[in-house]
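Whiteboard transcription, Tuesday session. T.W. wrote the structure tokens on the left side:
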């Protein structure tokens, strides 16, 4: 009797077993990820029975791909004959040049350029608050320098010397993805 139960349980398992259990069941397809174009403007015409605009809801995708929404209460009368225009104006930041004992930093249009001949040892980010940490190889000795920056996407920069290298910590106003490019004149960081 027990042998029949054994075969009754394990025969279906053997029939549905795969040779390689680590092989995925679904075969992935090569899907191209399209980079969306930047939003500039959209005109929305309301239906003919619209008289009061109660709220506007923006549904957006965040940096970590979560879908979120922001709701704005309006509660004002509208004319359905006239379109509602939503535009995004590009924010421009003034060019900043900061001098430090070991390098110059140029900040412009969501780009940071560290003008230095020193070798970049490592780059990493820390999450809360979002900041980028860069270590450059050079044996220098100076007190820690902290600079607050106004009217920029960069909020604060701290530079400190350590044994055999100096560290630059750049604090930002929000989370960004970034690219690091090195050349003989320095290090360029482009934020997205």
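and on the right, the sequence the group agreed on:
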């Amino acid at each position: 009797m027990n042998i029949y139960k054994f075969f009754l349980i394990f025969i279906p398992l053997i029939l549905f077993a795969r040779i390689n259990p680590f092989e995925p069941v679904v075969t992935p397809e090569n899907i191209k990820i399209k980079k969306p174009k930047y939003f500039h403007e959209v005109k929305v015409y309301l239906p003919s029975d619209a008289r009061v605009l109660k709220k506007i809801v923006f549904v957006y995708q965040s940096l970590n791909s979560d879908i979120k929404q922001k709701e704005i209460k309006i509660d004002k009368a509208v004319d359905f004959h006239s379109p509602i225009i939503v535009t995004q104006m590009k924010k421009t930041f003034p060019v900043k040049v900061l001098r430090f004992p070991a390098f110059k930093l140029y900040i412009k249009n969501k780009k940071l350029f560290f003008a230095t001949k020193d070798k970049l040892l490592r780059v990493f980010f820390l999450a809360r608050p979002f900041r980028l940490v860069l270590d450059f190889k050079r044996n220098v000795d100076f007190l820690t320098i902290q600079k607050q920056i106004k009217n920029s996407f960069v909020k604060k920069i701290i530079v400190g010397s350590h044994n055999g290298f100096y560290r630059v910590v750049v604090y930002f106003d929000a989370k960004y993805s970034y690219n690091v490019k090195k050349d003989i004149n320095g290090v360029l960081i482009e934020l997205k």
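Someone added at the bottom: The chain has a mean pLDDT of 87.
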